[in-house]
Amino acid sequence: DFEKDGRVAKMKYSLSRFGKNIFTGYLLLEFNLGLLAGNASDRYHILPDGSHKQLAEMFEISNCREIETVDEWTGARIKINVPNAEWIGVYPVKTLSRSEAGLEMTYQGTCLVFRIPIRLENGDSIDIDSQMGF
Questions:
Q1: Is the backbone of residue 114 left (phi > 0), alpha (psi -120 to 50) or beta?
Q2: 115 touches 91 (CB < 8 A)
Q3: What is the per-residue pLDDT across 36-52, written as a single tens digit (0 to 9) for each?
Q4: % of the chain with per-residue pLDDT over 70
Q5: pLDDT band at 134 (very low <50, low <70, confident <90, very high)
Q6: pLDDT computed for residue 29 by the predictor
Q7: Beta bridge partners of 32
Q8: CA-wise closest residue to 40 among 58, 51, 22, 56
């Protein structure tokens, strides 16, 4: 669903279990942001404590459900919220290319993975919501 003139995307997931065994595990939701210049000081993630990490950094945050990513150069602010999440893993997406200088890794974007614990018995279902605002 899109709201506010397409500036907020709401995604809904529904999981069901039909089987004899209880399933205990995780649902991982992945968001990929195609922002460039991962080491630029005006492009960063805002962590829950208010500190910043550059886009090209790899890190994880426990007990976290929301993260905001900022690109001051373009004026983009992206906030992603997954209410049932317990952990977020963030890592840069890079490509390997060959140039006159040899092989080089180039930052292409950022991947954000939200981990949601789930437990489903036979006949159970669970609904998971997420939201990305621009």
A1: beta
A2: no
A3: 888 888 999 999 899 99
A4: 99
A5: confident
A6: 94
A7: 111
A8: 56
HSE (side-chain half, CA atoms, 13 Å) at 8: 7
Question: Mean pLDDT across the stretch 109-122?
Answer: 93
How distant is the alpha carbon of residue 48 from its chain centre? 14
* Range 106-120 average pLDDT: 93
Token pair, residue 123, equals: 């006949």
Q: Give yes or no for a contact between 3 and 134, defined as CB atoms under 8 angstroms apart.
A: no
Distance in angstroms (rounded) separating the CA atoms of residues 22 and 124: 10
Q: Which of 6, 31, 24, 1 is nearest to 114 (CA)?
A: 31
Strand partners, 43: 71
List the one residue out of 25, 57, 28, 58 whose CA is nearest residue 41.
57
Contact 127, 14 (CB under 8 A): yes
Q: How far apart are CA 50 and CA 14, in angstroms?
A: 32
Over the Cα atoms of the chain, what is R_g? Answer: 18
Calpha distance 102→86 (Å, rounded): 41
